[in-house]
Amino acid sequence: xxxxxxxxxxxxxxxxxxxxxxxxxxxxxxxxxxxxxxxxxxxxxxxxxxxxxxxxxxxxxxxxxxxxxxxxxxxxxxxxxxxxxxxxxxxxxxxxxxxxxxxxxxxxxxxxxxxxxxxxxxxxxxxxxxxxxxxxxxxxxxxxxxxxxxxxxxxxxxxxxxxxxxxxxxxxxxxxxxxxxxxxxxxxxxxxxxxxxxxxxxxxxxxxxxxxxxxxxxxxxxxxxxxxxxxxxxxxxxxxxxxxxxxxxxxxxxxxxxxxx
Length: 261
What we know:
By secondary structure, the protein is α/β, with parallel strands linked by helices. The protein folds into 2 domains: about 5-95, Elongation Factor Tu (Ef-tu), domain 3 (Beta Barrel), CATH 2.40.30; about 105-255, Rossmann fold, CATH 3.40.50.80. Helix content is about 20%, strand content about 30%. It contains 8 helices and 11 strands. The chain has helices at about 80-85, 125-130, 135-140, 155-160, 170-175, 200-205, 205-210, 230-240; strands spanning about 5-20, 20-30, 40-45, 50-60, 65-75, 90-95, 115-120, 140-150, 180-185, 220-225, 255. Strands 4-3-6-1-2-5 form a 6-stranded antiparallel sheet. The chain has a 5-stranded parallel sheet with strand order 9-8-7-10-11. Strand 10, helix 8 and strand 11 form a beta-alpha-beta unit. The chain starts with 5 loop residues before the first strand and ends with a strand. The model has no long low-confidence stretch (mean pLDDT about 95). It catalyses: 2 reduced [2Fe-2S]-[ferredoxin] + NADP(+) + H(+) = 2 oxidized [2Fe-2S]-[ferredoxin] + NADPH.
């Protein structure tokens, strides 16, 4: 890739959620880098031969942050993550100058309720969406569903629940009870306060809507999906039967999906 298409940045922070499996990291951010909540960046690491390996990562951080944050799974033997998981503060990383992706609220017309359904590291783009002032002003309900196998994989749980105490978001939550609905689901162990099945099963039998206290209605609901490809495919099929679909030329939709995984 031509050098004028990326910037050389530095890793400034690393947090391990599950050793050898899940971690987050931050990099410096070029002043000219712009993105919309829900988009992803392409990151590069140089190999010993000087060539760079590139991968796409959804951006966790808010658009106003002076850093870029990412959430990653370790792929056993993966050329990129096997190197990335050992990176530390001060290490170099490349960031392509352009942000990509259509998993944004601009993908569909205004609605009443915004549903964000994620599994694993598919949570990442929704963390950025949930830090966007416009999103909070535009929707009556913000419903985040995050499915993980174990409790320790429920990364960012404290941050999400802490939004209710945020100076601005917290005020909206107090004014509008039920404004933010966070529904974690853990599939391989019992966790107090969490659901216990995959999102597809929770959606199919109505448990998800009952837990949220909000109905999935094509006329008012807007749904965003990100995570395991099989889960996304199953959810798309289920939602299509309920009247949900992506925007097409001349036909606004009510479903947005990211396919770079």
